[in-house]
User: Fold these one by one.
Assistant:
Number 1:
Amino acid sequence: MNTDKTHWLRHPLVNVVLGFILTGVLGTAITQHFMDQREQEKLRAQMALDRKEAIQQFSRVNAERKVRAELLLQAMRENSNGDELKTAIQEYENAYVAWNVERPGTLLLFRDLLSPENYHLVEKGFEESLGGKIFSPIRGCLSSALAQGDDRQAVNQTLESCRIDELFELLGTCSQALAVAVSDLAETGSEWVVTEDRMELQKRTRDSISKACP
């Protein structure tokens, strides 16, 4: 009886039909798998490009303001003539305006890359630490020194009293820490990062910013 019920399994067409069905199912599954892989690769590549763009813009706008401030400082210390000092002041003012103009756009790039929690951390470091506690004192110090006019001794005393060199060193350290933080934290929003690794990276990043930025 069992032989009668299963004899159709030995029919030549059964293998053809089963092979067709299995090939179709497996083929579809395999095709979908590779399509998903390609989409993930494209997403990772786009995330890497977005991260690179945000960090480059952040680094560029900070570097321009820092360099122009350093050149102005150098001109004051070397007692440059009127035209050279005026040029240094104007270029510094242009960089100051550019920093304020481009800062909102940079923060928007960060917000697109980071989770709300991580964005708040970076935004605070950018606005309060880098802008409020480093760039702002540097600007105030340079302005106070310029107000001393041609009195070189008073200029140098003013620069020394506000610890301008320490501020510049802190500026470089904090800027670097924030750039690294954005790069690292952008990865934590990815579904490919294990939860434990994500939490550890966030903690390490917070500690790094706390140490590097006032």
Note: The radius of gyration is 30 Å.
Number 2:
Amino acid sequence: MVRPDRTIDMAPFGSLQLCYLAFGSEVQVRPKHLETFAVVQIPLTGQVIVQTGNTEVVSGSHMASVPDPDQDLCMRTMGESSHLIIRLERQALEKQLRRLIGPNNFGPLRFATGLDLTTSASQAWLTSVRTLLEDLNSDATFRNPLIQNQTEQLLMSQLLLALPHSASSAMLNDPVPSTPRAIQEADDLIANHARDLSSVGEIAESVGLSIRSLQDGFCRYLDTTPLDRLRNQKMIGVRAQLLAADRTTTTVSAVATRWGFHHFGRFSLQYKQQWGELPSETLRK
């Protein structure tokens, strides 16, 4: 997908776009206001000076830049350089923020101009970005529409946690539910409809909670996470179907896909860790 032997290489991914840029000498760029989207510019080699409004950031290996979408922008590379640019739709980011913290009058989302790439939150986001890039290079797993939306939401959530912005305090101070009723409803939903559920965000929305409240509630009341509970319930469903299936007409991949597992190598490893045998061994019983 992204290859360093090209000057420009782009790949759309839902509401995101990943772009590799390389410059052979000092270049100055003055684009129009970004307005409807935000960009995170990560220098892979070299440095770039980013001026946006009254703010200037020297972006390098430890600092990404996030220009203000509503301000004038000037970017000047310092000699040869290469950059990974993540383009995100502002509406999609704001929608994901509402999923995380619930209805909140945070107004237009404003970002810090610099993103410190050395923090644990930034490193977690970068790991997800690298995983996406590797997967786009090797196969079409993340392009599957059943999981593309989940991947988009994960990348946006991690970025919103890593990058300071105008609603950061609301994300950090989201209250834990005062009653376990909503948590019990979420747990029942997972138990009864695990096969049809694809993300924690979907569960949170179904019971009227933000993702953070749902996660905190599961940790407090159930001593687990909603993602672990969902994955475990899906594994139980897969195993039950494999044990009941006719091995001459059923395949492991068909059953796994039915339950939302699309990366079969990872699925087989998790299955064996949970049940002590490969799914193919279960099917042969």
Note: The longest strand covers residues 37-45.
